[in-house]
Design goal:
Layout: H1 2-17, H2 25-32, H3 34-37, H4 56-59, H5 63-69, H6 73-76, H7 82-96, H8 105-112, H9 119-132
Helix pairs in contact: 2-7, 7-8
The structure holds heme C.
Length: about 140
């Protein structure tokens, strides 16, 4: 009997971790994003993880930037629904986006359907567009 209830407890916690149960945007960020981006949003620029601070909100202020954000590998591979992507991205914008407008699930769906071939080239285009308008973005070492 005891073995069964321990097994059930484990199964339930695994379900929560795999996304079968609703988790908060904070928990979703901690689980899916913080391993690379860190809980402070500082990332690891020397390892190619851009700093969110003073940057991600600027990217989200650009039309092309908002589409780019939906195609970064960490978001594509997280296995989240469009609504969950909107939630976790809005957590990022709330924390480090300085007033950028939030995503709706419908906007995520629309932007994910846009083909973005080379995400690194796209990031460079967005950064050049913003820099031309005097708006900074975080350092980005990818070739
Ligand atoms: C395995 C590491 C990793 C994980 C996990 C990860 N990312 Fe990233 N993220 C990156 C890297 C590397 C970049 C730089 C873009 C690229 O991949 O070319 C990036 C870029 C971004 C950017 C654009 C920032 C910029 O300055 O270009 C956003 C927004 C972002 N990630 C959000 C997320 C969110 C939200 C999650 C969680 C659902 C997440 N990432 C998970 C590695 C990761």
């Amino acid at each position: 009997m005891r073995g069964i209830s321990i097994g059930l407890g484990l199964a339930l916690s695994c379900m929560a971790l795999s996304g079968a149960g609703p988790i908060s945007p904070h928990a979703s960020y901690a689980l899916h994003c913080s391993g690379c981006h860190t809980m402070s949003g500082g990332g690891a620029p020397e390892a190619g993880i851009p700093d969110f601070r003073n940057s991600v909100g600027n990217i989200a202020g650009s039309e092309a930037g908002r589409t780019y954000m939906m195609h970064v590998p960490g978001v594509v591979s997280a296995g989240l629904t469009d609504a969950e992507i909107a939630e976790v991205m809005n957590y990022v914008l709330d924390a480090w986006g300085a007033g950028a407008s939030p995503f709706t699930a419908a906007e995520v769906t629309r932007r994910r359907a846009v083909a973005v071939g080379d995400v690194v080239a796209e990031r460079r285009r967005v950064a050049a567009e913003l820099s031309g308008a005097g708006i900074p973005t975080a350092q980005y070492p990818w070739p």
